[in-house]
Write a structure and sequence with these properties.
By secondary structure, the protein is an alpha/beta fold. It is built from 11 helices and 18 strands. The protein has 4 domains: 1-156, Spo0b-associated Gtp-binding Protein, Chain: A, CATH 2.70.210.12; 162-345, Rossmann fold; 363-457, GTP-binding protein OBG, C-terminal domain (GMP Synthetase, Chain A, domain 3, 2-Layer Sandwich); 460-493. The protein has helices spanning 58-62, 127-130, 172-179, 227-231, 255-268, 293-308, 324-345, 380-387, 394-407, 409-415, 465-502, and strands spanning 7-13, 46-50, 65-67, 87-91, 95-98, 104-108, 114-118, 149-156, 162-165, 197-203, 206-212, 239-245, 283-288, 312-315, 363-367, 374-378, 423-426, 432-435. The longest helix is centred in the last third of the chain and has 38 residues, at 465-502. Residues 453-469 have a biased composition (Basic and acidic residues).
């Protein structure tokens, strides 16, 4: 049965935003009182909280699928939808949040620290919020966007001041049980400790924590035994205490050889960027089990060699509680000095203000296709706008086109070589596909005609002065021509009459 878990993959689903409402206010004597559709509620977030009372990720190992609540839809009479219920997940202090590909998102080392691992979707606007002087009664509303849905990896790294390192059965669990109130499992076989144990030690005015972690063997830095499971938990420690068994009966082992193996494995382990390598941290040596006469003689023999290599050496017995007090005070001095150095190195927090619009909101990527180039529009805003659009509503589609044009998408498509009829895709994967038909952008802000028509192409009914003058002259010429024709007809008629009378 699993009792301790320090790595788990969470499958998270944030809440979906509620849809906006399309509604028109109606009451007696006011059948069309204007739009009053409310906004949809935002979806709930999935939040990780660093909780000092939580020491393991075991609960998430058994139930890795977690979901937050969805936002409610908007309603008429300006009633907004309810907000989705957020989900808070307590994790141990020292949990590292990573993406599935290994990117570190956050290192939660501060108690009470909060991190939104899965942001909820945004609620859609109702038609009341979309109303404007040019669009007095919108017949559409925006849809709610989906929340984040994906995986995050939680990796627990023990937060302790001192790490006890050594071979299996060297007496690390017995030591932490002797100097603190911790009660780890103790037995006379290797790898008794299968998960880290923490103990709090009080030495004078200094209180610090000690981590007892699984035993180290040769090849641990490459994953042999409990290697990586062990070494992950010593990354945060400010000091290392090498616990060496002076009473071992295994052939080929002695205190100096054991220490060399441990140092080699610590040197081979790569700590995260920005942290001090393990061997550059303060190190002490504790020669354990000197209650055995042969072990005491061996400790006295190897102590000068260890001190010559620069180590402070303490001869201890966890059974007889011998030599423990000087050891705890020596560790307290190292921890206190490290804390002072960290306090002096903490930089002042700088507040950086970045104006909005300093970075482009979208990019256009040209992709080759079977039937020609495909122009893919990528960016948070265009993708979100597509998610909010009801493509069954022509007015909503027109509103999307207006938003994209104002953002500068059409200008960018022209710049990268798109032509009318080109295939345009918004978002990654199989998203919405358009056959692009560019609009006329010049003086578009002055246009008041419905979308799809252009008043600039319609001739005005008001005549200009030159047109009126030309038409006047045409009428005068027409009248003169008519009078001349009538005069000709009169003269011809008179001539005929005179001829008849002369006969």
């Amino acid at each position: 049965m699993v009792t301790f878990v320090d790595t788990v993959t969470l499958h998270l689903r944030a809440g979906k935003g509620g849809n906006g409402c399309v509604s028109v206010h109606r009451e007696k004597f006011k059948p069309l009182g204007g739009p009053d559709g409310g906004n949809g509620g935002d979806g709930g977030d999935v939040v990780l909280v660093a909780d000092p009372q939580v020491t393991t990720l075991l609960s998430y190992h058994h139930s890795p699928h977690r979901s937050a609540g969805n936002g409610g839809p908007g309603m008429g009479d300006h009633r907004a939808g309810g907000m989705g219920e957020p989900l808070e997940l307590p994790v141990p202090v020292g949990t590292v949040v990573k993406s599935p590909d290994g990117e570190v998102l956050l290192d939660m080392v501060i108690p009470g620290e909060r991190y939104i691992a899965a942001p909820g979707g945004r609620g859609g606007l109702g038609n009341a919020a979309l109303a404007s002087p040019k669009r007095k009664a919108p017949g559409f509303a925006l849809l709610g966007t989906p929340g984040f849905e994906g995986d995050v990896v939680l990796e627990l790294k023990t937060v302790a001041d001192v790490a006890l390192v050594g071979f299996p059965s060297a007496g690390k669990s017995s030591l932490i049980g002797a100097i603190s109130a911790a009660r780890p499992k103790i037995a006379d076989y290797p790898f008794t400790t299968l998960h880290p144990n923490l103990g709090v030690v009080q030495a004078g005015d200094v209180r610090y924590t000690v981590a007892d972690v699984p035993g180290l063997i040769e090849g641990a830095s490459e994953g042999r035994g409990l290697g990586l499971d062990f070494l992950r938990h010593v990354e945060r420690c400010s000091a290392l205490l090498h616990v060496i068994d002076c009473a071992t009966l295994e052939p080929g082992r002695d205190p100096l050889t054991d220490l060399d193996v441990i140092l080699a494995e610590l040197a081979a382990y790569e700590v995260p960027e920005g942290q001090k390598p393990l061997l550059e941290r303060p190190q002490l040596v504790a020669l354990n089990k000197i209650d055995v006469p042969e072990a005491r003689d061996l400790a006295d023999m190897v102590r000068p060699d260890l001190e010559a290599r620069g180590f402070r050496v303490f001869e201890i017995s966890t059974i007889a509680h011998e030599g423990l007090r000087p050891l705890t005070f020596a560790l307290a001095d190292i921890v206190e000095q490290h804390r002072k150095e960290e306090a002096a190195e903490v930089p002042q927090e700088r507040i950086v203000i970045r104006p909005k619009g300093s970075e482009k909101d979208f990019t256009v990527r040209v992709e080759g296709g079977t039937y020609g180039n495909v122009y893919r529009v990528l960016g948070e805003k265009p993708v979100r706008w597509v998610q909010q659009t009801d493509f069954q509503n022509e007015e909503a589609v027109g509103y999307l086109a207006d938003r994209l044009e104002r953002l500068g998408v059409e200008d960018e498509l022209f710049r990268v070589g798109a032509t009318p009829g080109s295939t345009v895709v918004i978002g990654e994967g199989d998203s919405i596909v358009f056959d692009w038909e560019p609009s006329i952008a010049s003086t578009a802000e002055l246009m008041t005609s419905p979308r799809g028509t252009d008043a600039r192409f319609d001739r005005s009914g008001r005549r200009t002065t030159s047109e009126r003058r030309e038409q006047y002259y045409e009428r005068m010429d027409a009248k003169a021509a008519a009078r001349a024709e009538l005069e000709e007809q009169r003269l011809a008629t008179k001539a005929n009459r005179d001829a008849e009378s002369g006969e």
